[in-house]
Description:
The chain has helices spanning 3-22, 26-41, 68-73, 82-89, 102-108, 144-170, 185-202, 216-223, 225-242, 266-282, 308-324, and strands at residues 45-51, 57-64, 76-77, 93-95, 116-124, 127-136, 176-177, 182-183, 206-213, 248-251, 256-262, 294-301, 330-333, 344-346. 47% of the residues lie in helices and 22% in strands. The chain has two domains: 3-170, 2-Layer Sandwich (Beta-Lactamase), CATH 3.30.450; 176-346, Alpha-Beta Plaits, CATH 3.30.70.270. Strand 5 and strand 6 (127-136) form a beta hairpin. The chain is globular, with a radius of gyration of 21 Å. By secondary structure, the chain is an alpha+beta fold.
Amino acid sequence: MQDSDTGKCLDSFSEIISILKSTNQHERVFHCVIDRIVRHFRCQTCAIVLIDRKTEYLSIENSFGLSHTFCKAFRKKLATGAIGELLWTGRPIVIRDAGEQPQRAQEVMLEHPFGSCVCIQISVLHRSMGYLYMDIAGVYDFRGEDIQLLQAFADVAGLSFYKNLLSEENLRLDRIDHETELLKYGPFVETLRVTLEKAKDSNEQLSVLILDVDNYKEIVNTYGYDTSRDFLKELGELVSSQLRGIDVGGRFGRDEIIIMMPHSGVDEAVDSAKALRKRVEEGSFTRQHIETTISLGVASYPRNGRTMEDLLLAAKEALFEAQRAGRNKVYHYLTEWSARERSLGQA
Length: 347
């Protein structure tokens, strides 16, 4: 990157951070992020696509080069394809020549065909919020520094959105998610961070489980919002009933729950995950006797990661693989440090 380009980037980030410091209006930050990306790359399309936590659909929050009609009608399901993998694992999608990857290009394309494209995850505290999309009409040889720059823009966008969420959350000042009666994700992460440090100091094992309801959208569409809330509460109660006194459960997403199991290796965690999967499969929920299944990903310290970041990534990737394998499954990694090796075992 030339010195002039570096100076322009620093000016852009200085302006964006100034907005971020002075207001909770994430829309202004979004607009500024997209404007600077368009100027720097001279791109055809740029958009910030976020997950609607109430519906679990993707929606376009801010964009350049997209029609109002397209943005208004855009309502995409989370999937296990390229975008689904991006949202779960955080690995960027980089298409340097759409002609060489026509199927992948068609899968990620928004409104217009393109020559080159990049999609970057937007996340905070390891929780995916959506992704930054950018395409160029011609073929473009993206370099590592280009991806780093786009990741920095995505991170700033994520922080601004999270700051807005925190502002709303602080109005409630409550550690408990009352739809599930489990910890909210923020307090859960802090508990996990402290407990993991203790595990390191005492040379103890620790495991993390993440579960996802396999047919939650169908439950919402069939029984409505009120019944789906009742379902989540009963599911949270079932999870709590399966926890030991030292275990901690938290709300990870709309229909996702995360569990920390101190002093537990992968075998014990997998056994617990199997038992929980079976309890859900054999049970029914609410007065409507709703039946469902769950998929679970399991990861353990130090076998699957020595930092909280690697541990969460391993659990998320294992869950993604469980869903991709047909759901109602428990997945865990077979080898040490396997979040990066992608060597999986099915239970």
